[in-house]
Amino acid sequence: MCGIIGYVGEQDAAPILIDGLRRLEYRGYDSVGIAVLEDSGGIAVRKSEGRLVSLTSILEESWPHGRQGIGHTRWATHGRPSDANAHPHTDCTGTLVVIHNGIVENHRDLRARLEAAGHAFNSDTDTEVIPHLLEEHLKDGTDLHDALAQAIEELAGAHAILTMSASEPGVIVAGRKGNAGGVTIGYGEDEMFIASDLPALLPHTQRLVFLEDGDTVLIRGREATYRNHGVAVEREPQEVGLDPVSAAKGNFKHFMQKEIAEQAEVVLDTLRGRALFGESRVDLDDMARFCELLPQVRRVLLTGMGTSLHAAMIGRHYFEQIAGLPAECDNASEMRYRGAPIGPETLVVSVSQSGETVDTLAAMNEAKERGCPQVTICNVPGSQSSRVADAVVYTRCGPEIGVASTKTYLASITALYLLACYSAQELGVVDRERLGGFLEPLARLPKLVGETLTHDSIIEGIANEYYQHENFLFLARGIQYPVAMEGALKLKEVSYIHAEGYPAGEMKHGPIALIDRDMPVIAICLRDALRDKMMSNIEQVKAREGIVIALATEGDRELEEKADHVIYVPETSPLLAPILASIPLQAFSYHVALRRGCDVDQPRNLAKTVTVE
Ligand code: AGP
User: Which of 90, 247, 324, 418 has the fewest CB atoms within 10 Å, i.e. the most exposed one?
Assistant: First the structure.
C-alpha cells in the first residue's frame, strides 16, 4: 500500500526523493520518511508522522546531503501512524536502513528471536525485523545483496523492500516477494531510480525493469545485477512510452477533478485502433493465446475489487448480451477462498487499475491453478496482473493519481465492452452486421462523455444543497445497478457520508424503512427496458416524503414532475448508458466532498493500491 522510492547517482538525493514521494503520496499518507547516505559517510534519517508536508518542514531545518537515498510514504498496517513507526527503519548500529511495503506475517516469531539475540527495537512495526535480520546476516560476512536474498526467504507474506548500508556506499539493494506491490528499476543516463509506481519514475526515465516475484537486485552506479531466489538472472530494461505530463495536476485544483474532466479523451484512447467501425471489427493486441483458449470457454467469471468490481459487474452484462456467454461476477476477496468449481471452461476476466491489488491477484492465481483461461483489464503496463493473465486489455489512461478511481473506471467499462465484442467476433457468435450494431454507438461515446461533463455546474448546485446530509441511498436496476453501487462508493470514499447502492427492486425488502426527508435518494432512471419499474420506485420514495435526485435520459421530461431534481445524460445504447450515468455521480461526490472540506485526492484511511489483506 505504501509508496517506495530510491535513488543512486550524482545528484543531491533528498530533493529527488521528496519529489518522488510527492508523486507517490496517493499510495499511503499517514507517515513519511527518507534516509540519505551523506557524503560524510553517515546515514541521515528524517521521518515524521503525517503527510509529506510534515517531513518537508523538518528538512527545512536540516537538509541531508548525499547522492543516494531511499524514501517511503506509509499506509499503516502494524503500529499506528507515529514518528517512530514511520519508515525508514534502522538496525542496531543505525548504519543500515530499510523501507518496506507488505506485511511480515511471522514478525512476532522473528522479533522474539532477534530480541533474544540482543537486538533492540524502536517501533511497533512488523517492518523493523527486516533491518535486524539483515544485520544478523551481515555478521556472517555476506554482502548486502546476499543478506537481503537470504532474509527475504525468511519473511512470511508478500514484500517489496529497499535497503542500503553505510558500509556499502553507492549501493541500493531491492527485493520483491509475492504481491506486495511493484518494485520498478528505472535506468537514467548516469543514475538509477527505484520506485513502487510509475509516476515517480516517468519524469526521470522510461527505461524500466519490473521486478518479478522472488527477484532481488543490487544497484551500483548505472548497473543493476539481478537474481531470482538467489540465482543470477538477466532483466532487460523495456521502454514504456508513457506520458509523464498526464501524472501532473495542470490547471486543475485536484487530481480527481482533472481525472473526471479527461474522461472523454480516456474513452477515446481506450477505443483508438481497436474498434474498427468501417470494418465492423474489433482488433486487440497480443490476443493469440486468448484466441487459442477461447473455443473451450463455456462461461465467464468476472472479478475485481472496489470500483474495478463495479466495472466487472457491468462487464458481466456485456458478456451475456454481446457474446451470449453465461457470466457471473464475484468479489475477488471472496472468490479466492470460495473454492468455486471453475476450470478450463471458465474464462476469468479480472479488472484492476493497478494490476497489483492483492485479492485480485490471489483470485487470478487461484484461477490459474485451476487451468482457467484469463484476461485482465489493467491500466499499468508490466503490472503483476498483466503477467498472470493470458492476455491483457490495457486501459491507456495514463497514471491515475486521485485515490478515488474515476477515469480508469470508465476506461475499464469501455475495455470490457470491447473485449465482449472481440470474444463474440472470435467465437463467431455474431455476424458482421450484428457486431457492427454493437460497435456503432461506441463511435459517438467520447463525444457524449464530453457532453455529460458539461452539466457540472448543475451537479455542483445540487451538491451545495445536500452536502450536509449524512445518509444517501442510490437506487437502480439492471445494468445500472453497479452504477448505483459505484455512486455510493465514491460518495463514501471522498466525503465520508454513509451511502448505500441497492437494486431498486430490493428497496421494499428493507431499505424503504430508512426513507424520510433526511435521506436523499439518487435514482438512476434512464430510458431503457426497466425505466418504468424505476419510475414506480421513485413514486414509492416520494409517497414517503423522500427526496429524489433522478438521473434521466435527455428529453425524458416526465421525471421532472416526480423528482426533486433531474440530472440529464445524453441518450446512447442501453449497454453503454452506465458509462454516461457514472459521470454525474463522480461529479456529485467531488462537489459534496469539497463543500465538506474533505481531501478529495487523499481521503482518510484509504490507499490507491491495496497490497495487503
Ligand atoms: C475506488 O475509488 C478505489 N480506488 C478502490 O475501490 C479500487 O477500485 C480498488 O482498490 C481496486 O483497485 P485496482 O483497480 O487497482 O485493483
Answer: 324
Closest by alpha carbon to 380, among 516, 181, 522?
181
Per-residue cell: 486: 459505484
DSSP label at residue 85: T
Distance 305 CA to ligand 1 centre (A): 6
* Residue located nearest, by CA, to atom 9 of ligand 1: 306
404: CB partners within 8 A, 6+ apart: 256, 307, 490, 493, 494, 589, 600, 603
Burial class (CB in 10 A: 0-12, 13-18, 19+), 517: exposed
Return the bridge partners of 224, or none.
219
Q: Distance (Å, rounded) from C-alpha 214 to C-alpha 230?
A: 8
Rounded-to-5 percentages of helix, strand, coil across the chain: 40, 25, 35
For the purposes of burial, counting CB atoms within 10 Å of the CB of 50, is it exposed (0-12), middle (13-18) or buried (19 or more)? middle
C-beta contacts of 204-209 below 8 A and 24+ residues apart: 204/16, 206/239, 206/240, 206/241, 206/242, 207/237, 207/238, 207/239, 208/184, 208/237, 208/238, 208/239, 208/240, 208/382, 209/184, 209/185, 209/235, 209/236, 209/237, 209/238
In 257-324, DSSP assigns E strands to 275-276, 281-282, 299-304
User: Ligand 1 test: best mutation among 254, 302, 307, 585, most atoms within 8 Å of CB?
Assistant: 307
Instruction: Give the chain's end-to-end CA distance (angstroms, integer).
Output: 10
Q: Is the pLDDT of residue 179 over 80?
A: no
76 CA to centre of own chain: 18
Q: Which residues make Cβ contacts (< 8 Å) with residue 478, sequence separation at least 6?
A: 317, 528, 529, 530
Of 412, 327, 339, 329, residue with least CA distance to 369: 339
The per-type count for the chain, helices as H runs and strands as E runs, is 19, 27
301 CB-side CA count, 13 A:
24
Active centre residues (catalytic): 2, 608
pLDDT at position 242 over 80: no
Going through 142-199 in order, the beta strands assigned E by DSSP cover 159-165, 171-177, 184-187, 192-195
Higher pLDDT, 260 or 251: 260
Cell of 459: 451537479
In whole angstroms, give the CA distance from residue 510 to residue 80: 38
* pLDDT of 247 over the 70 cut: no
Is pLDDT above 80 for 415?
Answer: yes
CA atoms 566, 446, 389, 320: torsion sign: positive
Centre of ligand 1 to C-alpha 609, Å, is 7
User: Bridge partners of 217?
Assistant: 174, 226
From 75, 197, 305, mutation site for ligand 1 pocket: most ligand atoms within 8 A of C-beta: 305
Task: Give the DSSP per-residue string, 499-529.
Answer: EEEEEGGGGGGTGGGG-STT-EEEEEE-SST
Q: What is the pLDDT of residues 51-63, one digit of tens each?
A: 898 999 899 888 9
* DSSP three-state, residue 593: helix
Task: Tell me how far apart the alpha carbons of residues 578 and 567 are, in angstroms, rounded to a whole number.
Answer: 14
Predicted TM-score (pTM) of this structure:
0.80
Q: What is the pLDDT of residues 278-318, one digit of tens each?
A: 999 999 999 999 999 999 999 999 999 999 999 999 999 99
